[in-house]
């Protein structure tokens, strides 16, 4: 075999090793999985409230193990991935519905945490609570690559992957919302702003990375965008990414100086 042929063979092996389409599920199955995961049902809402109370207790008692358990049972990530599907498929009514659903989940989650911390006799902020009030660019990296891993796991043929639980722990969507509840219950505006920003950072960059992978997988669109519409859509995504990331970059600058 010539050197050129060996190089071509090696390139083909590398391409296959990192190919996202080799073992991906069908477009229909991906759609069904993501949209089912993003449904707002009575069961999901009850599980979410339970997860919020568990996470709040963990934060209140400074228990990392309890917080991790709460993150594993929270259904919030499903709404973010379903929103990403609506975004990539250009189904804007679907995107709007799932964003509204996500807003409902966030509102109920913060309300549940607020009630818990209002009633809790432990008012002093713990280390775990304070850790959710100072987001930085490192949190962007965790959310982005966690989102990549999550959506890749959700779009595989094999349904038994263990990626989603790991992503749920790494990206930590629930603890910042619990911290928002603590801040509201105890009148801590500084903690509310920090924790709220951390949740937005995590949710947006999971959404962004999921949208990128679904685009690579060529998810079919409900309608073809014109060149002008595509440019406008791309501009909004780039603009939003920069605006959301800027405070975290500034935070890292002050951390190292």
TrEMBL record:
Pfam families: DUF389 (PF04087). Keywords: Membrane, Transmembrane, Transmembrane helix. InterPro entries: DUF389. The keyword Membrane applies. The chain crosses the membrane at residues 40-59, 65-87, 99-119, 135-152, 164-185, 197-217, 237-256. This is TIGR00341 family protein. It comes from Methanobrevibacter millerae.
């Amino acid at each position: 075999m010539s050197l050129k042929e060996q190089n071509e063979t090696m390139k083909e092996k590398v391409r296959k090793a990192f190919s996202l389409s080799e073992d991906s599920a069908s477009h229909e199955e991906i759609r069904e999985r993501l949209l089912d995961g993003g449904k707002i049902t009575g069961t999901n809402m009850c599980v979410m409230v339970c997860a919020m109370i568990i996470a709040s207790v963990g934060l209140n008692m400074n228990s990392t193990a309890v917080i991790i358990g709460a993150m594993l049972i929270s259904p919030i990530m499903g709404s973010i991935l379903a929103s990403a599907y609506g975004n990539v498929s250009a189904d804007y009514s679907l995107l709007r519905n799932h964003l509204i659903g996500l807003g409902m989940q966030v509102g109920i989650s913060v309300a549940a945490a607020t009630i818990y911390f209002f009633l809790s006799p432990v008012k002093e902020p713990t280390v775990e609570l304070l850790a959710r009030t100072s987001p930085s660019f490192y949190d962007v990296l965790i959310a982005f690559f966690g989102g990549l891993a999550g959506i890749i796991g959700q779009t595989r043929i094999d349904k038994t992957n263990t990626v989603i639980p790991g992503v749920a722990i790494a990206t930590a969507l629930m603890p910042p919302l619990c911290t928002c509840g603590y801040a509201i219950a105890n009148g801590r505006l500084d903690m509310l702003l920090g924790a709220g920003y951390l949740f937005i950072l995590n949710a947006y960059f999971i959404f962004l990375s999921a949208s990128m992978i679904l685009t690579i997988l060529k998810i079919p669109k409900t309608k073809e965008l014109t060149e002008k519409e595509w440019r406008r859509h791309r501009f909004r995504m780039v603009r939003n990414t920069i605006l959301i990331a800027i405070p975290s970059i500034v935070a890292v600058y002050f951390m190292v100086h």
